[in-house]
Structures are given as structure tokens and as C-alpha cells.
Automatic annotation (TrEMBL):
HAMAP family: PurH
PROSITE patterns linked to this entry: MGS (PS51855)
Functional pathway: Purine metabolism; IMP biosynthesis via de novo pathway; 5-formamido-1-(5-phospho-D-ribosyl)imidazole-4-carboxamide from 5-amino-1-(5-phospho-D-ribosyl)imidazole-4-carboxamide (10-formyl THF route): step 1/1; Purine metabolism; IMP biosynthesis via de novo pathway; IMP from 5-formamido-1-(5-phospho-D-ribosyl)imidazole-4-carboxamide: step 1/1
Domain notes per entry: The IMP cyclohydrolase activity resides in the N-terminal region.
Catalytic activity, EC: 2.1.2.3, 3.5.4.10
Gene Ontology CC: one annotated term: cytosol
UniProt keyword terms in alphabetical order: Hydrolase, Multifunctional enzyme, Purine biosynthesis, Transferase
Gene (name only): purH
Taxonomic path: Bacteria, Bacillati, Bacillota, Clostridia, Halanaerobiales
Name of the protein in its database record: Bifunctional purine biosynthesis protein PurH
Provenance organism: Orenia marismortui
BP term (GO), one: 'de novo' IMP biosynthetic process
Length: 522
């Protein structure tokens, strides 16, 4: 292993750089540095060779040009066991540089500012840094490159234990991290510029969204499938990905998917306390109330049998009384997710089940301004669409029947409409008094979904409402709703048989409203 004799330090993120430089100095490594990094190290009394002393050329153009010079890149890229390379750099008076410590201008932080201008963003595109990093990463057999301050202490330990040398496999690992670092940086820039150029609502020409592994999972949907959980960069709203886990076993693949479904549903209800009870990504119960306890009682009562082994999502702080209900006799919950918990509530939940996953999100909201994309992988490709975050208000509803819905029915219709958006298609939701009483999910025919929803409701739907995620192709589902005592229906409309469906409603005294908007979820 070759000894590190010269290191070039040029960092935007200066966390830990002084301590790292002191460690290198103790090992006899010559420190070369640039700009603000050099000033900081000199202030700490460290001997530093300025970059201009290496290049014999001044830093130029407000720092745009400083390391872009053969004296730097020759020292990095020379292959040490290539005699011709070594002869050439010796003839030019270039000394090998064995360690590059570099991270890049804060482009992400810059473009995150609300009032950032294009000119400011452009000035924070690093050129010399990525070039040095890539040069060192390419020549990892001879040169180590460090881009992450969290690596400093471990590298120093290895250098101290090995006479200022690093193993080649370690340098290869650092090379991988370096290319990952520059790839992320380039993605940020191209994504930002793409948004500046974009003048319409079209989707990107290429999908280069960045995901970083949070953790490996025990397995996927089934034990024979490998799985991992990845985090999307620049997350803009509370989510299962950003949630903090307080207690319980690690989340499984299915836990994460189901919890995401539960959380996204309760995020629809910001004005009142709401609770969703989810099984296999579908709501088996959902309730809204004046208090969180009332909302939970409604949510659980929607389908107590299916609620066993469920995911519970709440949109308000969980208090002691709610925690006691969740952990009541005969109940079993896999995951609880909420904005926050009182100390007493946490203790009650932890004490009930040692494996209960307890997650905290912080205050909930939906970023409707920049919601991001919904993606579905298919073999050999990917489907990409905007997230379905559109809201429907009472003013947008079109009453199409002779009977008009009452104010209470309108509230229940809009409630059910929010819920049905989160049910697998074909989807039917029966609701009454701001509570889901029956769900028909994922059926091949809409009438079957209506029959199943009615079976689940078991009489509680009498006088209630129905939401359908898409239009009724035939009046048969309305006939089933009428048998169950349904008094109002909300659906998109748009079928060639809309008139027949409306006639069926009129015959049975059912009010119907059209939204003009479909909510398929496959």
C-alpha cells in the first residue's frame, strides 16, 4: 500500500475538516488547499500550501478557475506504476497528489431558497470540484478521494494504523461514493435547469429521480423476494419515508406499503380529527369526528373483524384516551402512525405490544403545489403520472337527479369521495355520519363491489351514501344500492348510459351528484 504524502483539501461543507487536516498533518502529509478552506486551516495554525503555489497561477474569475490545471490533475491522474506517466510529471515538476478531500458548492441549498435567481443558481454550479473528484475516483488504485465528512474519523484511524496508507479496496469504496456524489450533484443541476426550461405541463423527457437506500428489508411481499426501502431526495411533505419510529420491530415491505396508504388517506382530512384503519392497502374503516377519540371509534367500528392486524393512521396528536382505545381488549394493531403522541399515550402503546411499530410524522399536509410523481414499475419500463392530490369541493358537484342531496348527505358524499380515492378499483364506499360502513374493493365488476360493500355494511348503510371511483356502466349497481337503503350517490359521470343510471336513481328517490373527475387506483 502506497503512503499518502500529499493531500488536496477543498470543501464547501467544512464540518470536521480542521480535525481531519490536523490528523493528516500529524502523519506528515503535506496539505494543499484552496480559497476558504485554506484560510480556515491557516487560522488554525496548520501549514498549508496554497493552490497557486502548486499551479504557479492565480485563482481567477471569483474562484471559477483555481484547480483546473495540469499541475493538479497531472498529480492526481498519473498512474504510479506507469513509468512514462511518472517520467512526464517529473519532467514538468509535478508532484503526485495522493488524497483529494472535496465536497461541492451547496447547489441544493441554494435552489431551495424561495427567492433564488437563475444567476445565483448558476454561480453555485461547481466545476473544479467535480473534476478533481472524478479524476481521483478514476485513479483510485493510487489516489484516495473523500467526499463525505462522516468518513473522516474512520479514514484517519486506518491511516494511523497503516503508516499513512489505505488499502485498495477501501479506496475503491471511496471511489464509488465519489461518483455517487457527483452523479447526485449533476442530477440536481439538470433537474433544476429542466424546470427553468419547462413551459407546459408535460412530464420530464428522462426520469432521473434519485433514491437512497434507507434499509434492507427482511423480504418483500413474500419471503422468497429480496427487498429494500429507498428514500426519495428532496422530500417535500410528511410521509412514511420521513417518519420517526419510536418502538417495535423493523417495518416490513407490506407494513411500509400499507402504512403509506393509511397516512395518505388521513392527510386528506385537515379540518377535523380523522382516523384510517387499513388492511392490505385498503381502508376497512375510516372516521371523522369532533375529537380524535370519536374519529377512532368510528374508524374501528367500520369493520372490527378486518381491523385485527391493521394499520392505524391518525391526523392529530394521540392522547391517553385514544391510546387506551387502540390497545383495547381483543384488538391487535401492527402499526400506529400519527403526527405526535403524549408521553402517556406512548407508554400505553409500548406496553401493550412489544412489536407494535409506533411512527411519528410531525404536522400533516399535502404539498399540492409540488406533489411529485406516482410511479408504477412494469417489466422493461415504468409508468409515470402526477400524484392524485386534486380536491373536489361542494361547488364543483353537479346534481343530476330530481332529488337533491341534503346538507348532511353532501358532507357524507364529500367524505366518501375522499375515501374512495384510496380504495383499489373497482371501488365502492358506503358511508354514513362521516364514517365508512362498507367497502367493496378491487372487484372486476362495479356491481360486485357494491354487493360486497353492502354485505360489509350489514344494515348500517340504511339512509347513507355511496361513492364510486368511476362511472356506473349500467344501472344494476344503483339497483343494488337501492335495495340497501342508500339515499345519495357520488360518482364521476361520463358513461354512455348515464341517463339510464340517473333514471334508476330517480325511480328509487336517490340523489346523485357528478364530480366530472375519476379516481381509479390500481
Amino acid at each position: 500500500m502506497a503512503k499518502i504524502r500529499q493531500a488536496l483539501l477543498s470543501v464547501s461543507n467544512k464540518d470536521g475538516i480542521v480535525e481531519f487536516a490536523k490528523g493528516l498533518n500529524k502523519l506528515g502529509v503535506t496539505l494543499i488547499s484552496t480559497g476558504g478552506t485554506a484560510r480556515k486551516l491557516k487560522e488554525e495554525g496548520l501549514p498549508v500550501v496554497g493552490i497557486s503555489e502548486v499551479t504557479n497561477f492565480p485563482e481567477m474569475m471569483d474562484g471559477r478557475v483555481k484547480t483546473l490545471h495540469p499541475a493538479v490533475h497531472g498529480g492526481i491522474l498519473a498512474v504510479r506504476d506507469n513509468d512514462e506517466h511518472m517520467k512526464q510529471i517529473k519532467a514538468e515538476g509535478i508532484k503526485p497528489i495522493d488524497l483529494i478531500v472535496c465536497n461541492l458548492y451547496p447547489f441544493a441549498e441554494t435552489i431551495a431558497k424561495e427567492d433564488v435567481t437563475l444567476e445565483e443558481a448558476i454561480e453555485n454550479i461547481d466545476i473544479g470540484g467535480p473534476t478533481m473528484i472524478r479524476s481521483a475516483a478514476k485513479n483510485y488504485n493510487d489516489v484516495a478521494v473523500v467526499v463525505d465528512p462522516s468518513d473522516y474519523s474512520g479514514i484517519l484511524e486506518e491511516l494511523e494504523a497503516n503508516d499513512a496508507s489505505l488499502a485498495v479496496n477501501k479506496k475503491m469504496e471511496l471511489s464509488y461514493k465519489a461518483f455517487h456524489h457527483t452523479a447526485q450533484y449533476d442530477h440536481l443541476i439538470q433537474d433544476y435547469l429542466a424546470k427553468q426550461l419547462k413551459s407546459d405541463d408535460s412530464l420530464p423527457e428522462a426520469m432521473l429521480d434519485r433514491y437512497e437506500k434507507i434499509s434492507d428489508l427482511r423480504y418483500g411481499e413474500n419471503p422468497h423476494q429480496k427487498a429494500a426501502f429507498y428514500k426519495e431526495k428532496e422530500i417535500t411533505e410528511p410521509s412514511i419515508t420521513t417518519a420517526k419510529q419510536y418502538h417495535g420491530k423493523e417495518l416490513s415491505f407490506n407494513n411500509i406499503n400499507d402504512t403509506n396508504g393509511a397516512l395518505e388517506l388521513v392527510k386528506e382530512f385537515s379540518d377535523k380529527p380523522a382516523v384510517a384503519v387499513i388492511k392490505h392497502a385498503n381502508p376497512c374503516g375510516m372516521g371523522v369526528g369532533d375529537t380524535l377519540l370519536e374519529a377512532y371509534e368510528k374508524g374501528y367500528a367500520g369493520d372490527p373483524l378486518s381491523a385485527y392486524g391493521s394499520i392505524v393512521a391518525l391526523n392529530r396528536k394521540v392522547t391517553e384516551d385514544v391510546a387506551k382505545e387502540i390497545t383495547g381488549e381483543g384488538k391487535f394493531v401492527e402499526v400506529v402512525i400519527a403526527p405526535s403522541y403524549t408521553e402517556d399515550a406512548l407508554e400505553i402503546l409500548k406496553a401493550r405490544w412489544k412489536n407494535l411499530r409506533i411512527l411519528e410524522t410531525g404536522d400533516l399536509f399535502i404539498n399540492r403545489e409540488n406533489p411529485g410523481y406516482d410511479m408504477k414499475k412494469v417489466t422493461g419500463g415504468m409508468l409515470v403520472q402526477d400524484r392524485d392530490v386534486v380536491e373536489t369541493t361542494e361547488d364543483e358537484l353537479e346534481v343530476v337527479t330530481e332529488v337533491k342531496p341534503t346538507e348532511e348527505q353532501l358532507k357524507d358524499l364529500l367524505f366518501a369521495w375522499k375515501v374512495v380515492k384510496h380504495v383499489k378499483s373497482n371501488a365502492i364506499v358506503m358511508a354514513k355520519d362521516q364514517m365508512v360502513v362498507g367497502v367493496g374493493a378491487g372487484q372486476m365488476s362495479r356491481v360486485d363491489s357494491m354487493i360486497i360493500a353492502g354485505m360489509k355494511a350489514d344494515g348500517r348503510q340504511e339512509g347513507g351514501v355511496v361513492a364510486s371511483d368511476a362511472f356506473f356502466p349500467f344501472p344494476d349497481a344503483i339497483e343494488e344500492a337501492a335495495k340497501k337503503g342508500i339515499k345519495a350517490v357520488i360518482q364521476p359521470g361520463g358513461s354512455i348510459r348515464d341517463e339510464k343510471v340517473i333514471e334508476a336513481c330517480n325511480e328509487h328517490g336517490i340523489a346523485m351528484v357528478f364530480t366530472g373527475r375519476r379516481h381509479f387506483k390500481h
